[in-house]
Design brief:
heterotrimer, A alpha+beta (276), B alpha+beta (238), C alpha+beta (216), A: Ribosomal Protein S5, domain 2, 5 helices, 29% helix, B: 238 residues, alpha+beta, Ribosomal Protein S5, domain 2, 4 helices, 12 strands, globular
C-alpha cells in the first residue's frame, strides 16, 4: 500500500455519502447539523496543572497545561503569556509521519490560540508576578491521538477544558527573588470560547465533519464564539469556496449550535471544579 | 541519603517483590493496525502500530520488514514542561525499545516494508521504557505481526541496599541502581538489558532473576488483555 | 471445538505433517498470532484473528484504483503490498502501448473486482480483473481480513442470510465489501456488517449478525 498524504476514499463510498446527504442523513447516521457524541475527561494527566481528553467520535485529542514563568512582551508588560502548540502524533493516523509539526498542526495550534486569545477568556492581567519583569506563561500543548476529522473543534474543546480546570502553585517575590509558594491558584477565567466547524460538501452544509467527509469536502469554516454570541475567531480552509450566502447561513447555524456545545463544555468544567 | 526502605516497606507501601498497579487495554486507536494503552504506576502510555506498509525509502532492508520505533514524551507528561522535539534520551530509548521487540518478530514475510511502532508517553513515571515495551508488544500482537512470544519488561533496582522490583520515580532517581530488563520468557531470553548505578555481580544475577519473576506476572496481564479483546465470554485459552 | 491461542503459546507437541501460522521449535508448535487452532489428523492450522490481508493466488479481492500508468493500474488491496492490473488483461488482447489509454477505462477511486493471480515475495501482486471488474454499489464497508475470510468460509449461509435483504453483496477476501440495495434492507445489512466489525474475534460473529437481522 502506497503511503498517501491524506485519506482517499472510493467513488462508491463518495456516492454513498452524497446520496445520504441528499436524503438528509450522514453515513454514521447523524443529521446534517448534528455533532458526534462529545466526551470530555478533565484532569486526565495528574502531572499537568490542567488537562483534558476529548473524544469527538473516533477523533481523540488531549490537551495539557503547564505553567511557567516568563518575561512579558514589551507591548504588554502587565499581562501573562499564552503559548499554544499542537502536534498531530504519528499514532493518530497512517498518513502522519513523525517529525516537527507540519502546516496542518501549526494551523491547528494557531486557530486554537486565536480563539482563546481573542475571546479574552483568560484575564491575563491577573497573571503577573512582578509588573514588567515576571509573568506567568501558560503553555497549552495539544496532542492529537486519533484522527477522524474536525480536529479544530476537538482541539479547542480540549484546550478550553484543560485551561478552565487548571490549578497551579503561585510564585511570590521575596527579597527580590522568586519563591514558589503553597498557595494554589486557578487561571482567572471570564469566558468559555466555543468552536463550531462546518463543511461544504457539494451543495450541502454539515457540522462536525468526520474524516471521510473532510476528504471529499469543498471547503471548511471554523467559527469561534464568546458567551455573548460574538464571533471572535474564524478560519476558512479547503481548496473550494463558499458563496456569501453560504457563509451567512453557516454563521447563523453555528451561533445557535455554539450555545448547545457551550453548555456541554461549561457543565464538564463546572463539574470538575466542584469535584476538586 | 533518602529513606526509601523502612522496615521492609517501600515509600509507596510495597514490599520488594510487589509490582505497582498495572492496567492494559487493547485496540484504542481506530486507525492503527494494532494499539494498546498501559497504566503502570503513574505512567500513562499509548503504543500504536502502523504497517507492514510499503515505504519506498532509501536504506530500507529488502529481505524483511524494517522496524521503526519512536518513543516520545508529551510536553505535559513531566513535572517541568518538556520541549516537544525529541531529546537525545528519547532517541536512545526509541532504539533500545526497537531492539527489545525485534527479536520476537518474524519479519521475513514482509520484505521491503516498514512496521512502525509509535509510543506516546502521556504521563511519565519511573519505568516508562519498560511499560512502553510491555504495551508495544501487545499492540504488535493486536496488529497481527507474527510473533514468537510476547515481550515484557520491568526494572529491578537497589534502594538503601535492598533489591526491589518495578522502581518508582523516586526509587529510580534516588536509588543506587536501576536495571531494566525485557524478556521472551518461553525461550528464557533477554531482549533488553540496561543498567546504571552499582551492584555486585551476585546482586546483578539476583536482580535479573527477580525481574524474570515479575515479568511472568506482567505477561499474564498482557494475555488477559488480549483475551478480553479477542475471545469474548467464550474465550478460554486453555 | 478449536482451541483459542495467543502468540508464544505452545499449541501442540509431537510431530505433525503440516502446520501454518505456527513456529516449530523442537517438538513444540508455537502460535505466532492471536487466533484459533484447527487440527485435522496430523495437520495444524492457526486461523488468525488479526493482521493484514495476506494475498493468496485464487483469492477474489476488491481493491481501489490509486494510480494509472501507461500499461497498468495500481490497486490498493488493503494489504502490505499493492496489486496491479495489466492493460492486456483488461482488454483481453495484446496491447499496443501507443494505442491504449487506461485513463479512459478507469479513474482513481474506482473499486474493482479481481482475482489474485500471482504473488511473489517482495513484489506487487498481479491481479486479473473479473468479467464485470468495475464495481458500482450503494454502500461499501471494510471489515478485518480475518473476519472476511471467516464469512467466506461459512458454508452454512452467513452470507446468504445477509443477501436476503439486498440485491447483491460482494465480499472481497481482503475485507472490502460492496452492497447493492436500498431502503430498510440496505440499512440492516450495513448495521450487521458494522456489528461484525465491533464483534470480538470471530466467535461472536454469527450471534451478532443474528441479533441485528432479527430486530424488529
Amino acid at each position: 500500500m502506497m503511503p498517501r498524504k491524506t485519506l482517499t476514499i472510493s467513488t462508491v463510498r463518495r456516492d454513498e455519502i452524497l446520496k445520504g446527504l441528499a436524503a438528509g442523513k450522514r453515513v454514521d447516521g447523524r443529521g446534517l447539523l448534528d455533532y458526534r457524541k462529545i466526551e470530555i475527561v478533565p484532569g486526565i494527566i495528574e502531572k499537568a496543572e490542567g488537562s483534558a481528553l476529548v473524544k469527538l467520535g473516533e477523533t481523540q485529542v488531549i490537551a495539557g497545561v503547564k505553567i511557567g514563568l516568563g518575561t512579558p512582551f514589551p507591548d504588554t508588560p502587565d499581562e501573562g503569556i499564552l503559548i499554544v502548540n499542537a502536534e498531530i502524533l504519528p499514532i493518530a493516523s497512517e498518513y502522519q509521519e513523525p517529525g516537527p509539526p507540519d502546516e496542518d498542526a501549526i494551523e491547528l495550534a494557531r486557530v486554537v490560540d486565536r480563539g482563546i486569545r481573542e475571546s479574552k477568556m483568560i484575564d491575563f492581567t491577573k497573571l503577573v508576578v512582578s509588573p514588567g519583569k515576571t509573568v506567568y506563561t501558560v503553555y497549552v500543548d495539544i496532542s492529537v491521538l486519533g484522527m477522524d476529522g474536525n480536529l479544530f473543534d476537538a482541539a479547542s474543546y480540549a484546550a478550553v477544558a484543560a485551561i478552565s480546570t487548571t490549578r497551579f502553585k503561585t510564585y511570590k517575590l521575596e527579597n527580590g527573588s522568586l519563591v514558589k509558594t503553597d498557595e494554589v491558584m486557578q487561571l482567572p477565567m471570564v469566558d468559555t470560547v466555543t468552536s463550531i466547524t462546518a463543511a461544504k460538501i457539494g451543495s450541502h452544509i454539515v457540522l462536525d465533519p468526520n474524516w471521510e467527509e473532510e476528504s471529499i469536502m469543498d471547503a471548511r469554516l471554523t467559527l469561534e464564539f464568546d458567551k455573548e454570541g460574538n464571533i471572535c475567531a474564524a478560519q476558512k480552509g479547503g481548496a473550494g469556496a463558499f458563496t456569501i450566502d453560504e457563509v451567512f447561513n453557516i454563521v447563523d447555524i453555528a451561533k445557535e449550535k455554539s450555545m448547545q456545545i457551550r453548555s456541554i463544555l461549561e457543565g464538564v468544567i463546572g463539574g470538575a471544579k466542584s469535584g476538586s | 541519603m533518602v529513606e526509601l526502605m523502612v522496615e521492609g516497606k517501600r515509600t509507596d507501601g510495597r514490599g520488594p517483590y510487589d509490582l505497582r498497579p498495572l492496567k492494559l487495554d487493547v485496540g484504542i486507536v481506530k486507525n492503527a493496525a494494532g494499539s494498546a494503552y498501559i497504566e503502570h504506576g503513574k505512567n500513562k502510555i499509548i503504543a500504536a502500530i502502523y504497517g507492514p506498509r510499503d515505504i519506498h525509502r532509501y536504506g530500507l532492508t529488502v529481505e524483511r520488514a524494517t522496524i521503526r520505533c519512536r518513543y516520545h514524551m508529551s510536553p505535559f507528561s513531566t513535572d517541568e514542561r518538556k520541549a516537544p522535539q525529541p531529546s537525545r534520551r528519547e532517541i536512545e530509548i526509541s532504539k533500545v525499545i526497537r531492539d527489545a521487540l525485534e527479536p520476537s518478530l518474524l519479519l521475513e514475510n514482509f520484505p521491503k516494508t516498514s512496521i512502525d511502532i509509535f509510543i506516546e508517553v502521556l504521563q511519565a513515571d519511573g519505568g516508562s521504557r519498560s511499560a512502553s515495551i510491555t504495551a508495544a508488544s501487545v499492540a504488535l500482537a493486536d496488529a497481527g505481526i507474527p510473533m514468537r512470544d510476547l515481550v515484557q519488561a520491568v526494572a529491578v533496582g537497589k534502594v538503601n541496599g535492598t533489591l526491589v522490583v518495578d522502581l518508582s520515580d523516586i526509587e529510580d532517581k534516588e536509588g543506587e541502581a536501576d536495571l531494566p530488563v525485557a524478556f521472551m520468557l518461553n525461550e528464557n531470553k533477554i531482549t533488553l538489558l540496561q543498567m546504571d548505578g552499582k551492584m555486585t555481580v551476585e546482586e546483578f544475577k539476583t536482580a535479573i532473576n527477580m525481574a524474570k519473576e515479575a515479568a511472568a506476572k506482567i505477561k499474564e496481564m498482557q494475555k488477559q488483555a488480549l483475551v478480553s479483546k479477542y475471545f469474548g465470554q467464550g474465550g478460554q485459552t486453555r | 471445538m478449536n482451541k483459542f491461542v495467543l502468540p508464544g503459546e505452545v499449541v501442540a507437541q509431537g510431530s505433525y505433517r503440516g502446520w501454518s501460522n505456527l513456529l516449530r521449535i523442537g517438538n513444540n508448535y508455537i502460535a505466532l498470532f492471536v487466533g484459533e487452532v484447527e487440527q485435522a489428523g496430523l495437520r495444524l492450522r492457526l486461523i488468525r484473528y488479526s493482521g493484514p490481508y495476506m494475498p493468496k493466488a485464487g483469492d477474489r479481492v476488491i481493491g481501489m484504483v490509486t494510480d494509472i500508468q501507461p500499461l497498468s493500474l495500481t490497486i490498493d488491496i488493503n494489504s502490505y503490498v499493492d496489486g496491479y492490473i495489466m492493460a492486456n488483461s483488461i482488454f483481453r488482447r495484446r496491447i499496443d502501448a501507443s494505442k491504449v489509454d487506461l485513463s479512459k477505462v478507469a479513474n482513481i477511486g474506482d473499486l474493482v473486482l479481481a482475482k489474485v493471480q500471482l504473488t511473489e515475495r517482495g513484489k506487487d501482486v498481479l491481479l486479473v480483473p473479473e468479467r464485470n471488474w468495475k464495481i458500482s454499489g450503494d454502500a461499501t464497508v471494510t471489515i478485518s481480513p480475518a473476519k472476511a475470510s471467516y464469512m467466506l468460509r461459512q458454508k452454512d449461509g452467513l452470507l446468504q442470510r445477509l443477501r436476503k435483504h439486498v440485491r447483491d453483496l460482494l465480499v472481497g477476501a481482503n475485507g472490502v465489501i460492496v452492497i447493492r440495495g436500498e431502503g430498510e434492507g440496505l440499512e440492516r445489512v450495513k448495521a450487521a456488517l458494522n456489528a461484525i466489525n465491533m464483534a470480538k474475534g470471530l466467535t461472536d460473529i454469527d450471534k451478532v449478525v443474528k441479533e441485528v437481522l432479527e430486530v424488529g
